[in-house]
Amino acid sequence: MVAYSRARKARLSLIAAAAAMALVAAGLTSAASAASWTATGSLTTARDIPVPALLLDGRPILVGGSTQALENSLDSAEIFDPATGKWSSGGTLGTARYNHTATTLESGKVLVAGGYKIINGVSGGFQKSAELYDPAANTWSPATNMGTGQERAWHTATLIGDGRVWVAGGFSGATPNALTSTRLYNPAMNSWSAGPSLTTGRLRHTATLLATGKVLIVGGKAMSTSSVSLNSAELYDPRALPGSQISSAGSTTDGREVHTATLLQDGRVLVVGGTDGTNVLKTAELYHPATNSWSSAASLPGPREGHTATLLRDGQVLVAGGDDGNNGLKSTELYNPATNKWSPGPPMVAIREGDAAVGLLGGRVLAAAGAGFNGGELKTAELYTAIQPNAIARRPVVAYLSNGHLGLYDSQTHHDLATPPLPAGVQRFSISQNGRYIVYLDPTSKHIHLFDRYVHRELSLPGIDASDHGNPTMSVSNTGLIAFDHATSDTTQVYDSRAKHLIDTGLPADNAHRQPSISADGHYVATTCLDHCITPSNGDDAYVQDLRTKQNVPFPDNLAGSDGGEEHPCINGDGSLVGIDITKGMVMNIYLYSQSGANLLPVPNDPGVANAHCALDQSGQHVVLENPATSVDRLYDRLTGALVPLPSKIQNVVYLSSPVLRPPDTRITTSHVKSKKHKASFSFSGVGPTRGFQCELIRPKRKHHPRPKASFASCRSPQTYTHLGGGTYTFKVRAFNAAGIDPTPATRTFKIKKVKTKKHKT
Description:
This protein is mostly beta strands. It is built from 1 helix and 64 strands.
């Protein structure tokens, strides 16, 4: 093993790169409580420099690491459950290792590659082996190794847009030189192939996936024995032709290693701290992808290396822990990109460096393991909380059509949900983002229908439900506003299902516009303007209208350029985020624009293929990306950066809604039957979220008369019946909510005494 001038410099690994990609969020805000760190459950095994990965279900897994001051590598993994604050075993690797990489694949499996093996001071050498973790089975299995002569540690591994993993640089121990070679892992084939060589060999660098699909490589060092860190940066473009995939990304002012690189909301990259080989740095720099250039950012209050950096939901960057060259740190700093300023964050519970930091689905940050103030390995963990976990962190329900039938898939639980009784053959539909309304086009009559899932019935739509609308695109708000293409005028119209009339949108009447998407609050509608809504215009443009003021909302003009078009807009709940697919030349990608921040936000478009037909959930945290050529949809979690694969049955245009609840159970709590008074009263309640109740009374059959027809009707507790004739009755009640009606109504059978008829003497 190579010796270094500073023992803590050995804590290089890819914690920096992993932390830099832990969160990619934007436009997600919520009321914040006072930020703080609190202790949570401890790991079973103390470990330094573990490598984290975020599983698709939101649990972080920590893989490998070291003990005995880097003289022993670990073969164990542990998984943290954010719901319980407890750790559990993540299985046992085939090879103990540290300074390896761990990458979550689109399948949900985790690929571990390379690293260094040492057992109780006896070196096992640098590794070329790779392993796969299967979360469903909680087991590890061998993957194909990286190839002969491809042993490496201190490399980077990045999941690129086509699902492959790009491994870059590192150190093999064969010579003092860092590696220029790169490798590409294909999960579908379980195979490795050569990637393009870096211009400069480097180890202890960072790799950051940009919104463009390119990978930014920054810093590191060219030789293990060198005391000089690199200030060069490189770009890897998976879409470029062989021979031109690697290009210069300019130079940073300071050479640096053991730094962090964090993708910001606006697509820039913040590089912080590290060491130049001699001194620990407090400087920070910003990379601008649009110009392929660097600029200085505000410096940290003090020097810091071996720290973590995590992008928070409010857009700030949390820098935590590390050391200043002499002592370990438990202080934290917050960087605000809008003001280019640092402010003190709350101190951590413990000094830790070389730890793993992972952003959780609820907005919290987990810091676990690492080394403490005396350099000893830690098994403790703690949580940073600035925004309380809430419902918007949950993954949405995906509404889709399969062979003309509506499907509802819960991407959080991976279960199919019950659907309302829509006719077969539906080809056009939409669902409100709260899940209440489903608007659809009857496949036979071409009439628009609206189903209210809260009351479980269709609502009348006088004025539009008896018209032939051709094959329109539709969208419905949480307030019951329906936006749709009008077949005759070729314009977007909006109908108020509560007031039962069309509303004045203020949209340009002399221009064609289509493909509307309405915000959940009903305040904004985004459409595609086919011609000259915006001047100057070279084709289709996205057009956003405020339905309250009847005014156009500023939107980037002509993002597609002179040879392209903007289509298929999607919008989040309050209209602050608008997504569109843009065709530039022969390439179609989805762009996400923040109305509040007036900037474009990162979207992981699949390189080399078309990306279209976006869908946003109410919070704007989740966006669906579709490949029109294969009809495959992917769900992108903008808070965690996770790409969540969806079942193959979910294809073409989809919509996202809030979680659909399971139907409630129903309980009759009390019953009062007064037989002599021919009266009965029942009190009842729902178990679980309940929107209302339906009651039915089955009456006794009379001689020579058919049994009165019974049916369920809306009711409230208590339900009282009077003037009941003699006989046996059955009372039924069922609760309902947005998920459906209780399939097993609560029942109570009771008797009412017959009225005795007095006989008169004759």
